[in-house]
Input
Amino acid sequence: MVLLFALACAHRIPEPVAQAAAPVDPEGSPASDVTVCWLEYATGTLPHGLAVAHGVLRTDVPSTQSGLLIRSASGDWLIDGGQAVAVREELADVHGLPGLLIHRAAAGWTVTATPADALRAAGVDPSTLAGVIPTHAHFDHLGGLLDLGTVPIVLPQPEIDLATAVVAGTGRGVLPKEAVALLPRAHPLAFDGGPVLYWDRSHDLYGDGSVVLFPLPGHTPGSLGVRVKVPSRPGAELVLVGDTVWVREGYEDREPKSWIAASLDADAAANDREIARLWQLHRARPDIQILPAHDRRAWADAFGKPGC
Ligand SMILES: [Zn+2]
Output
């Protein structure tokens, strides 16, 4: 325990990043019909001291596996799908420290709905989705999306490359069975747009500024964030940040992950830079609701309860 504490304290605070004075805010069209819902797939608890370097080990934070259902006459999209129904079988060939952490994490979740069930409860036939987008290709975000039949899975090229390396036996981070299932259905996402908030590149999902995706590399090479600004939520802009931080104290206090949590980051230094950027965004725009993928407190603050 003393060693754990020393290692946790040794983890450095992410340095601020040189930024423009104000975050860039592309305007959404007032005519946008886009709406957003919270779909929840599983709940659990996360030790605060595991989530952040200087957290309290014996304090648990309510955690979630959740996704954003984005609805529009132009097509419905699902962002993040929780874990696969067959996650235990998929985890059988994962070993080492990451394997131990993932096995423990997977055992701790109470599944409340599959993505298909959550979609149907929201009035959406899963087969009609325009596509699905994982914030990154870890099992607890991608697995549930793979259960949705043949719906196209859209994700940045570095994440597709990671899955390709896993299949070739030269990479890790995606469950091997999920990498095999992903590649035939994967469509590369190009960040072909200009700046959003503090990030230089983006992809505007509907072309109206309502849902803008941007790269958040670090946790995985192709992790992404999602800025949602829709007329149906006036003054309640959202930024989903995947697992760049596990709890909101990460961006509120510029707090790095614990060394155990950071061991799951593909590039912890890059992830620290993104934590610093999120902290800067939170200071500049405290009105924006930043959603760490697993911090249920943040989701409940943003939406109240799951559903549409
Ligand atoms: Zn996760």
